[in-house]
Amino acid sequence: MNPFIFTQSKDLDGVLAALSAGEARPIAGGTNLLDLMKEGVMRPSQLVDINGLDLDKVDIGADGGLLLGALARNADTAYNPLVRERFPLLSSAILAGASPQLRNMASNGGNLMQRTRCVYFYDVGTACNKREPGTGCPARDGVNRQHAILGTSETCIATHPSDMCVALRALDATVHVQSTSGKRQIPFADFHRLPEDRPEIDNTLQPGELITHITVPQADRFIAHSAYIKVRDRLSYAFALVSVAAALDLDAGGSIKAARIALGGVAHKPWRIEAAEERLVGKAAGEAAFAAAADTILQGARGYGHNDFKLALAKNAIVQALTSAARGTDIASGSDRDPEGDNA
Amino acid sequence: MELYQQYPVRLRINGQDREFNVESWVTLLDLLRERAGMTGTKKGCDQGQCGACTVLVDGKRINSCLTLAVMQDGKEITTVEGLANGEDLHPIQQAFIECDAFQCGYCTPGQLCSAVGLMNEGQAKSRDDVRELMSGNICRCGAYPQIADAVVQVMDLRRSAIDHDSGDKPAFTTGAVLA
Hints:
The complex is a heterodimer of chains A (344) and B (179). Chain A is an alpha+beta fold. Chain A is built from 13 helices and eleven strands.
């Protein structure tokens, strides 16, 4: 790691002042930032430890909406009884990510700020437009098994690695940020961005801004029918090739009153096409409708060689997630293993 | 004059209060191994991918390679050296021996601390849960079935101790080793 100045603050105004000066970066869990610093991908000259700030609350308000403090840990969020009961999709998504140790460390704000796991981004010996703008993208013609199939640009085909963010996108969360010049709310859809010609910019957080909390509107209609499916190269502790957060509101006859579908592992941000959800309304919950929705969501998808399989995989995963959601929510247990087998 | 600023760090490691002065970039793992002389905690990948560096901070398991020592000032750290009570092994250490849960042993300190963290968390309800919730610890010798057996054995012991007191909790069965 490069030498850096370390400070700690228990005072939000003090942290915001330090961030506005431009040199300091906040550190909470540190699980991604320190890894990137060891690799030389990020080289901040100053870190301000924000763990002393009073931003670790997880609570459900009178309106049924969820408040997630930026410093609440991923594990504490996922295992919070209220989150499990009222937002099972979010709980499942968080528990599908990383490992128990990392979830104990990682903060909710930091989860949103994760950087891509593209191997070229991580390898300072290679070119990368995200790491060093203008140097090129070796992933386009390289080993791109993990890479994006939607919303890519000439300059970047990286994916956003989060599971939690896929559920937050499906559930219409809002990101609350603050700087010395005031507070601002960012709809989740607008928080992460597509690479376009500025792949070095992951999100719309402005210099000097700090995420203070995330809110999720009441989602009781989806409690009974939600599912998070994560397809990866091993059963646990791996980044998604494709993941799907699916939630349905069904009437007594099994017709769809409302649907939510968001994808991870396929783009530079959680991918959601609201038009596909609207077209499901009034349809019978079943494979025909789900496959049609998948086609709408995946319109314009393209592979880059090693990740061509993701087109079929994404469609199948969408259908599987919606089918699973229609069958009923499997209460998050931290395990998505096949109960039939134990393939050690 | 020091070339780089030193930061004071106070830690309670395995019940002992210790004080250090470290550079900002020293990880908790490097402090434990190189400054505290406690080499039980292992450096595997140094990237949070293998779990060999797992320790308990205030009872919670974390990857000590991905946190700065200066961020843990004032915390209580438990490493594998702190699990046994003198010559009496911790039940999970005894179970690892009985279940043949290691071969080369490099991942074992992390596996043991992770297992204690898992039991502290109380989220595992089945053998499959144990497998899933131990997935942050890689074992390249492939002792996974025996590691799960060892963790389940200790959980069963604790459960039956509870049963003895209250009488109404079902035993948590180990089941067959299928692999």
